[in-house]
Specification:
Elements lengths: L6 H5 L22 H4 L9 E7 L3 H11 L9 H13 L5 E2 L6 E2 L12 E5 L8 H10 L19 H8 L7 E2 L10 H9 L18 E2 L2 H14 L6 E4 L2 E9 L2 E11 L3 E9 L14 E3 L7 E3 L9 H8 L5 E5 L3 H12 L4 E5 L20 H9 L4 H12 L6 H12 L3 E4 L3 E8 L4 E7 L10 E4 L14 H6 L4 E2 L2 E2 L6 E3 L2 E5 L5 H4 L6 H20 L30 H21 L10 H6 L7
Parallel strand pairs: 1-4, 1-10, 4-7, 10-22, 11-16, 12-18, 13-14, 13-18, 14-15
Antiparallel strand pairs: 2-3, 5-6, 8-9, 9-10, 16-17, 19-20, 21-22
Helix pairs in contact: 3-16, 10-13
Length: 615
């Protein structure tokens, strides 16, 4: 992604603005330490609780989860209802302690400040989801591929379904056909009855049909905006900066505890925890042909992530002159099909699509077994794998490379029938030569394709390979705190942390070895945010004053069943031993399950503290 920096973003004044100066002084001819020699002086520093790198869906999911005290991953619907009732009515009535007669007057409950958050992104000037929205507008994508339960809202698993229903926008949902159950003709049913019996149960039950619709791009965008508005995330400080280096060390402003020193092209930031929501992380690269002549990256070709206009301005000029135009698209995934669709609809004479493997058609980018009713079995197998290498192979098998949706497959067949598209599977580009005079490409393929024209432009929709060891901004961390990687993916902790001593978190595709095959899509963004924020809350709570009691201290749920007799206490000091006991018990239970511990209802604690008004 190309940064579109603005003077306004560079000159914004705040208490956390930093001035950069080199500190290269030496003493007695002895060089300063590496940290001191490269330090950036910080005026009036702010040590942020959380620094998020990335404003895409994964970054937004983490920011929203940090603001949500009652996430759906922890609470049932009944627990949500009960706890919201308690929050609504707490402090509205005067409470008299029957033992000592002390009356606590009703008073509004003070709103507790959440952790301080700073967000940086190369396209930060556009706010949340800027790059996502730009690409959707560019390719004119009308419908998402993901089903309705793939979203970033931490409050409710069915948040997207509810949003569509509340706003009367069910007409913007498109059913994923041949996904729920299996349709068979009467003849096939009779034939199957006569044949051998075999277990062939559909992956998705009929009762889950409402989940297997895809939302329109506008509906999803509006629902994300509603999440941003609900949690006040528009007020989050977002800076348009490019990440250059991350270090985790003691600092002059934090001599007793290590903090992250995050260096960008605009300055230096300090943070207690850092979340990397950077997608595949690596920059997209154009795979050159084995024999490339006069080929310059960026001239006459580009990667799908770098597209600024479709078709390219050079192609548009030829079209205006009435000349025949030809475009080559390389890739076998949905993005390649979307590029083909845009080119054909914009009037390109002929488009050629090359795929190195067979054409695959799937409703979503992972196997239905991973999202349907058998998902628990698949995830259990994944989490119980003996090694990360085995997990990586399971990811490859579940995703099986790029694929088209049935809708785009139908569109491609229509373009082929109309003579606008020529599709070639199991084909690679063998050579390419750029003619600067005619501004066109001469291309040969393997196996050869007869009658290939000169191409006016080449689009490479070849994905982005993740290789954590090649990221320049992680070299310092890797040298000081080395961890293993598997096929480019980091071997993180179960909390998606770099290691147990370095609170550097990863979400999205880079967390694939812990989240599974869906890590790279919206489902991975939401589940990754849940794991990360759970751990961040634990880390930040260790620094919290003893009288600062949050919802995590007073239990995670409340239910209507078997409420115990209230305990009469008049202040927080009397209740503290009980709070400490609950916290120790919860911590012990969480550590016993390294995969994920879902806290059960501690209704006893909530019930006992309903009538308390802590100073």
């Amino acid at each position: 992604m190309t940064s579109t920096s603005t003077d306004q973003g560079a000159s914004s004044s705040s208490a956390s603005e930093y001035s950069i100066s080199s500190n290269s002084s030496t003493s007695d001819g002895v060089a300063q330490s590496s940290r001191a020699s490269s330090v950036l002086e910080i005026e009036d520093p702010i040590i942020h609780d959380v620094l998020i790198v990335g404003t895409g869906p994964s970054g937004l999911a983490v920011a929203a989860r940090l603001k949500e005290p009652l996430p759906s991953a922890i609470f049932t619907d009944e627990e949500h209802s009960r706890y919201h009732w308690i929050k609504k009515h707490t402090g509205k009535l005067a409470v008299k302690n029957w033992r000592n007669g002390v009356v606590t007057q009703a008073k509004p409950k003070a709103k507790k400040a959440g952790p301080s958050v700073l967000v940086i992104d190369k396209e930060g000037s556009g706010g949340w989801m800027a790059a996502w929205n730009r690409r959707f507008r560019l390719l004119e994508i009308e419908q998402l591929r993901s089903p309705m339960f793939f979203h970033i809202d931490p409050l409710d698993r069915d948040a997207l379904v509810s949003y569509a229903s509340e706003n009367g926008r069910q007409n913007e949902l498109l059913e994923i056909e041949n996904c729920v159950g299996k349709e068979r003709s009467k003849h096939s049913k009779k034939k199957r009855m006569k044949g051998p019996k075999k277990f062939d149960e559909p992956a998705v039950d009929e009762r889950d049909r409402r989940d297997y619709f895809t939302p329109s791009s506008k509906l999803f965008r509006d629902q994300c905006e509603s999440v941003i508005a609900r949690y006040g995330l528009a007020e989050t400080e977002i800076r348009e900066e490019s990440l250059q280096d991350i270090d985790y060390e003691y600092d002059d402003f934090s001599p007793t505890e290590k903090v992250f020193r995050v260096k960008t092209d605009r300055g230096l930031h300090l943070a207690k925890t850092v979340v990397m929501a950077v997608g595949p992380a690596n920059e997209p690269t154009i795979p050159m042909a084995p024999r490339a002549v006069n080929s310059m990256p960026g001239e006459g070709q580009c990667h799908a992530m770098h597209i600024r206009k479709i078709p390219d301005p050079n192609v548009q000029r030829k079209m205006k002159q009435g000349k025949s135009t030809s475009i080559l698209v390389i890739g076998g995934g949905l993005t390649a099909a979307q590029i083909v669709e845009r080119c054909v609809m914009k009037g390109v004479s002929k488009v050629y699509l090359l795929m190195r493997s067979e054409l695959k058609v799937k409703p979503i980018d992972v196997s239905l077994d991973w999202v349907g009713k058998f998902k628990n079995h698949e995830h259990a197998t994944f989490w119980s794998a003996d090694s990360d290498e085995e997990r990586f192979q399971m990811i490859l098998h579940a995703r099986m490379g790029g694929s088209l949706t049935p809708i785009y497959h139908k569109k491609m067949k229509g373009h082929i029938a109309a003579g606008k598209l020529s599709m070639h599977t199991h084909t690679k580009m063998a050579s390419q030569e750029w003619d600067a005079e005619t501004r066109s490409w001469t291309v040969t393929t393997s196996p050869p394709i007869e009658g290939l024209p000169h191409f006016d432009y080449i689009y490479h929709s070849t994905g982005i390979q993740t290789a954590i060891s090649t990221l320049p901004y992680l070299q310092t961390i890797r040298e000081k705190y080395p961890i293993e990687d598997c096929s480019g993916l980091p071997c993180l902790t179960e909390d998606l942390m770099w290691n147990e001593d370095v609170p550097l978190f990863f979400t999205g595709k880079t967390a694939g070895l812990r989240l599974g095959p869906a890590a790279a899509n919206l489902a991975g963004a939401r589940s990754g945010a849940e794991r990360i924020v759970w751990k961040i809350e634990d880390l930040l709570s260790e620094e919290k004053p003893e009288d600062d009691l949050s919802y995590r201290d007073i239990g995670h749920a409340v239910g209507p069943s078997s409420l115990p007799k209230p305990v009469e206490v008049s202040n927080a000091e009397d209740a503290k031993p009980f709070f400490d006991h609950l916290k120790r018990k919860e911590t012990s239970q969480r550590k016993s399950d390294p995969v994920r511990f879902k806290t059960k209802a501690t209704e006893e604690l909530i019930y006992k503290t309903q009538a308390l008004e802590f100073p």
